[in-house]
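Entry:
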Amino acid sequence: MKLVRTICIGTLAAFLAAGVLVAGLIWADRAFPPPLQAAASVSTEVADRDGRLLRAFATRDGLWRLRTRAADVDPQFLKMLIAYEDRRFDEHAGVDPVALGRAALQLVANGRIISGGSTISMQVARLIEPRRERSITAKLIQIARAIQIERRLGKAEILDLYLTLAPYGGNLEGVRAASLAYFGKEPRRLSVAEAALLVALPQLPERRRPDRHPATAEAARHRVLERMQTAGVLDTSEIARADTSAVPTRRAQLPALAAHLAEAARKKDPTAERHATTLNADIQQRLETVALHASAKLDPKVSLALMMADAETGEILAEVGAADYFDASRSGWIDMTRQSRSPGSTLKPFIYGLAFEEGLVAQETIVEDRPADFFGYRPKNFDMTYQGDVSIRQALQLSLNVPAVRLLDALGPTKLMARLRRAEVTPRLPTAEAPGLAIALGGVGLSLKDLVQLYAGLANREKPVRLGDGIRDLPGAIDSPPLFEPVAAWNVADVLSAVLPPLGSPKSGIAYKTGTSYGYRDAWSVGYDGRYVIGVWIGRPDNAAIPGISGYATAAPVLFEAFAKSGVAGTSLPPAPRGAVRITQAELPISQRRFSMQPNGLVSASGREKPPQIVYPPEGAHVELGAAPDGSALPLILKLQAGRAPFRWLANGKPLAEPTRRRTSDWTPEGSGYSTLTVIDAVGRAASVGIFIRSP
């Protein structure tokens, strides 16, 4: 009986002791958790539209540590890693008794540590809590930490931590950073030789660095390959091929594209680990190369900026704020795609687009290029010469200043500004100044991004688009009418696409315009094909003059090279829309054969104000109306010139609407048949046309 009591007491004491021990272990586990937060410090990444790395920023302690998950890595590498480091990784709870037993026997037999018996979980414990000494005490702490980690994380999470934290020499940590530095690629597709080297390096990362100790690295790789044959992971032929592969002997720089946009992304959200952009890494790389080569031909203090956007979506595909971010002589740290500068003549196509849309001119309308005085404003051409009578087409292609100012005077600078705002671009005017005729020649402030957004509206006939900032401010269609009616937009593109390319540049079918700001401070060139828009700016960041600079000779060659090297450009300009035709000067209506408006008024050469004239539809026209999606007839656009606003339109004697100051209106006929359209201006002068309407 006494024996039974003793056994019972002993058993109870054992249970109590075990309970106390378990409670103590639980308390210790909670009181001293593993420092998993150490793994939270990773490099900030900026990625392109497809998730490819554009640029990474080192951690605060100077490490290149890129977040890596098993899904980011070649499956073959993972098989080799587990076979080499921890064959029973999926089975144990942080500690492999078999591996530890083998390590203990080796220690007894050799008097020193031969292999540590570490599991991947134990290595993660060592990486998040580094210890210099290699001792039994350190190993016991690793074991305890590994068990703690296994209690908190799943196997996949533990493997991800290893892939992120494993050392690869110098300041490289993690498989992605090592693969990018040694092989110049992401670790998603690794050769057998590459995978074996990445498995071998973390054991002795400094001694096995291939860029410093290639022979040691090659020997370590060979040992990994031999182990893979023993483990049945690789066959003999694969190992033989991998053994003959050269070990990389240099460490490449990690991707460092789009420096300015990457900095902007980090400033916009400093806490984010990864920033997505709309850029395309391939296009960005190519255009940065174009910019670097072009800048080598410029004065050491001259900077260059490039931007490429998709006119359909508004997405910025490439953005080069300066050819070299670290070039102090060119102030390379300044993002010149966002700086406001004088756009020179690059706004002229928008003046002509308005004039085409208003019916003031056609391509072959004659306009004067002679000295003119617009109440004290006397514009001169870039070469200080005058061409006399020229066609509108020639005036735009030659970028003549006086004809552009004549048209803007007739249209009104305010109307041009309002049209630019339709594309959500607001040119910056001098303080307290109203829009004036100098806008035609660059008398406002615009950035390269503004110009690319405006030209995207020219390229996209359906709608203007917003470029966004390339980061979080998303691009897309703007809720407004098209920048110009399709026929007007086609006329502009038709004229600009026929401008000869600069000397030495191949014909590429793009529509483009150049500009040079006053005082030779900025050279511009902006062009578009059927899908993409590219803009180029060249100048000094300090806004100093650059003698001899010009948009055509300096910026346009870069534009054509950028289109040629982009790898995606080359889409044909869209075909002519319905109603767009090239008409000879002799075939034009009399009112469009010559643009006779004089500065500051709609007056004739004799000085008397001209009566209104209906320029569209012309007398006797047969007009076939299009159909809307619901089957109803689309309205007919009415255009007039001259006369004094406001104007009242009548159809068959019936007023159409309230008087308007616009020279473009629309009318929806009630059906097919002949109709008479009449317009009456503010002083009672009238003009009429008879037309035949065919409704759908």
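The chain is about 35% helix and 15% strand.
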